[in-house]
Design a protein that fits this description.
It catalyses: tRNA(Arg) + L-arginine + ATP = L-arginyl-tRNA(Arg) + AMP + diphosphate. The protein is mainly α. It contains twelve helices and six strands.
């Protein structure tokens, strides 16, 4: 389906909705503009027709978009329709598994570390209150980062200003508003020991990876587990997966080839990576809604673990020449590394290129 055909298809859906009494619009648009999705969008094309129709129809734009979405999903040639932001329709065209996989990889690489960011919460300014304790403050900072990724502008409060070491070493914001505590304050199980000896990255992971109601493992010999560079350490697995992807991109460049999304539908290792990458936007939305960075941390571990079996197959072996499959695997690996880097950033943790 070409963009012109898609424009006509969307306009037909609008006209049918008006003819059947679902939309009361006196003057219909002469044409519907479809274009590649902007930041926060997804799929192949996006249109703002629901926003244009909202006022004359006397309905909220998201309601108009959902009405049109239902109609478009019944149309041949359209695989999926997602409503984002204030009412944009994001349309994925039908195609085989290879086409959908390639689209996902392109969407991620186009968005970069902002893949999964939206403006769904634009205009909202949630008031976050943290108990005056290091874990609560780190958790509040990460929640605020994820809320911003969804378009919100959160305000952070605490009954006492954060300690200098928490700001300097752990990256806790220094501009938190000092205000009395509330019953709705973020109150995770407190850290049992000072996390600053772990350094910023390991300390934040140790505080954020467990669910808020679980006790973080910090202090004494337990610190060694967070600093160990071995597979039993989930933070190491996530950062190592990202660093390996960056190394593969460097090595591929030395061999004279670059990533290019392409057919991988029947590649079992590739398929294992697709689902967690597809889930990433939903994980960010759930993390913001539930104020639960542990959801994002566990998701990043799932991405890294799914990626690990793919990585040895990315580069040609021996005298083998780079093929389309190698380029496609490299593109998929780069997309996964992009998701890992973006997710770690929202947790306030660095994603090094070398490890």
């Amino acid at each position: 389906m070409t963009p012109v055909e898609l424009s006509r298809t969307v306009l037909h859906a609008v006209r049918r909705a008006v003819d059947e009494g679902e939309l009361a619009v006196a003057v219909l648009p002469e044409r519907v503009v479809v274009a590649p999705p902007g930041p926060g969008g997804c799929g192949d094309y996006a249109t703002n027709v629901a926003l244009q129709l909202a006022r004359p129809a006397g309905k909220p734009a998201p309601a108009v978009a959902e009405l049109l979405r239902t109609r478009l999903l019944r149309t041949d040639g359209i695989h999926d329709v997602v409503v984002t932001g204030p009412g944009f329709l994001n349309i994925s065209l039908a195609g085989g598994a290879d086409a959908r996989l390639a689209r996902l990889v392109r969407d991620i690489l186009r968005a970069g570390p902002r893949y999964g960011h939206t403006d769904t919460l634009a205009g909202q300014a949630p008031q976050l209150h943290a108990a005056p304790e290091v874990r609560a403050l780190v958790l509040m900072d990460s929640v605020a980062r994820v809320l911003r990724s969804q378009g919100a502008r959160p305000h952070m409060h605490c009954a006492r200003p954060p300690r200098d070491a928490w700001v300097r070493i752990l990256g806790v914001p220094s501009d938190i508003t000092v205000a009395p505590g509330t019953d709705t304050a973020l109150r995770p199980v407190p850290a049992p020991a000072d996390p600053t000896p772990l350094g910023r990255d390991a300390a934040r992971w140790a505080l954020l990876h467990p669910a808020p109601h679980d006790r973080p493992r910090i202090g004494g010999a337990e610190n060694d587990a967070h600093l160990a560079q071995r597979e039993t350490n989930p933070l190491f697995r996530v950062r190592y997966a990202h660093a390996r992807v960056r190394a593969l991109l460097r090595n591929a460049a030395d061999l004279g080839f670059t990533p290019e999304p392409g057919p991988l539908a029947f590649d079992g290792d590739a398929q294992a990576v697709i689902q967690p990458l597809s889930d990433h936007p939903r994980v960010l939305a759930a993390t913001a809604a539930h104020r639960a960075p542990d959801r994002l941390a566990r998701h990043l571990v799932a991405v890294a673990d799914a990626l690990a079996p793919l990585l040895p197959t990315v580069l040609p072996l021996g005298d083998e020449k780079p093929s389309a499959a190698h380029r496609a695997r490299l593109a998929l690996a780069e997309a996964a590394g992009t998701v890992l880097a973006g997710g770690l950033s929202l947790l306030g943790i660095d994603a090094p290129d070398h490890l």
